[in-house]
Design goal:
alpha+beta, Rossmann fold, 6-stranded antiparallel β-sheet, Phosphate regulon transcriptional regulatory protein PhoB, Bact_Sigma-Reg
């Protein structure tokens, strides 16, 4: 091997990540020439006269750069390169084979063995320096990338821990939210109310409920808080306290009369009370839509308020279906809103469906929204063989089965199903 006299370069050259070089050559003279020149460039140099010795050295610690002869007795350069790459280590080492072979087939064999570059003997100083500099740039980028990956892995590990903690909290929050709806089905004489509540995540912004302060009178509601997630769920928890079915003295939809019994307030008055409470709370940007209805079971007299919520679907016993209400403004948007009451009379066998827009704004397989017409068709189909909770379960099943393939719920889905059969 001959190294040109031009190899006498400045010792203060910056070769980046390359600090330690392993020279592997069975020729002591060629090693001495290379070692002397590399040391002048500022490298720490380790020598080996065979591939076997080089492997043992590398097991103790990897160099930054390997310069290995191709042809050596025993373990040749290709075999050494394969064995070197098989060593387990996170640090990458740049490997240059020194050879007199220049055929493309031989170069391909070297690349397949794990070599990064080749130098054709006799060596020229400028080319040697350029190849080492190129290797240094690659190592610099690789190690910079490794450092960034370690930072990312550390950050991901911390995020996983945080996610697990949040996930546990959300699971507990879902249990608390489920407690706001202690029963999904209840009979009131011959009539009954069934509830459906399906959040699209751990927790949701929909709320349904029912209560009865005494015989023959019941109230039920469907609420959809703006937004999704934790903020909306916190609002539903608050509303669940306002419309509690267990503590009548805290329920804003009732008032105690003659210090003996509770009576249901008119629906439009309940909406106004809730609106005033939300508007009085500074810093709250959420609002909600609602349908709240009360029924006198003795005569089927239905009174309800619709505050921006989807129109309730009245399913007459005759098979006719109609939507009730005039829309109205959501609760919590504007102060001093006048909410309007809708009244009608139910006949025995009539049914009323309150639902959130998670039904009507759900996309079906053709990409369109289910909308009110689709909801009405679905309700009439489900009504044929189902009643009570089974009707709502069938509605929800059909809704999910009709979604485009590979999609899931994009919004919370909830409903109240009232079946009137007198008192």
């Amino acid at each position: 091997m001959r190294v040109s006299s031009q190899i006498e370069a400045k010792a203060d050259l910056d070769f980046g990540a390359i600090r330690t070089v392993l020279v592997v050559d069975d020729s002591r003279l060629q090693r001495r020439i290379l070692v002397a020149s590399l040391k002048k460039w500022g490298f720490t140099v380790v020598e080996a006269d065979s591939g076997e010795e080089a492997i043992e050295i590398c097991k103790q610690g990897l160099p930054d750069l390997v310069l290995s002869d191709w042809v050596m007795p025993g373990m040749g350069g290709l075999e050494f390169c394969r064995a070197f790459r098989a060593l387990e280590n996170d640090q990458y080492t740049y490997f240059i084979l020194l050879t007199s072979k220049s055929e493309k087939q031989e170069v391909a064999r070297g690349l397949d063995a794990g070599a990064d570059d080749f130098l054709i003997k006799p060596l020229e100083a400028d080319e040697l320096r350029a190849r080492i500099s190129a290797g240094a740039r690659i190592l610099d980028m690789q190690r910079e990338l490794s450092d960034k990956n370690r930072l990312i892995e550390t950050a991901l590990s911390e995020l996983r821990l945080a996610h697990d903690a949040i996930d546990k909290d959300l699971i507990q929050a879902r249990k608390i939210q489920e407690s706001l709806v202690p029963e999904l089905y209840r009979e009131f004489g011959k009539s009954r109310v069934s509830l459906l509540l399906k959040p699209c995540g751990h927790i949701g912004g929909d709320l349904v409920g029912m209560f009865s302060p005494g015989a023959n009178r019941i109230g039920f509601y469907s609420i959809d808080v703006s937004g999704h997630g934790i903020t909306s769920a916190m609002m539903t928890a608050r509303l669940g306290g306002y419309l509690t079915s267990q503590h009548f003295d805290q329920n804003v939809a009732m008032e105690k009369r003659f210090n003996k019994f509770y009576a249901l307030l008119p629906p439009e008055q309940v909406a106004a009370i809730l609106n005033a409470r939300l508007m009085a709370d500074t810093g709250i940007e959420e609002y909600f839509t609602m349908v709240y209805a009360i029924v006198d079971l003795r005569n089927g007299h239905l009174r309800m308020v619709q505050a921006g919520h989807p129109h309730p679907l009245l399913l007459r016993r005759t098979g006719r279906a109609e939507f009730l209400g005039d829309g109205g403004l959501p609760i919590g948007l504007l102060p001093d809103v006048a909410f309007q009451q809708t009244e009608t009379y139910l006949q025995r066998g009539d049914k009323l469906l309150l639902y959130s827009d998670g039904f009507t704004e759900c996309r079906v397989k053709n990409g369109d929204l289910l909308d009110e017409d689709g909801l009405q068709r679905m309700a009439l189909e489900c009504l044929g063989a189902n009643s009570g909770p089974e009707f709502l379960d069938d509605m929800f099943w059909r809704l999910t089965q009709g979604m485009p393939p590979g999609t899931g719920m994009e919004d919370d889905v909830s409903a109240v199903f009232f079946e009137y059969n007198g008192n």
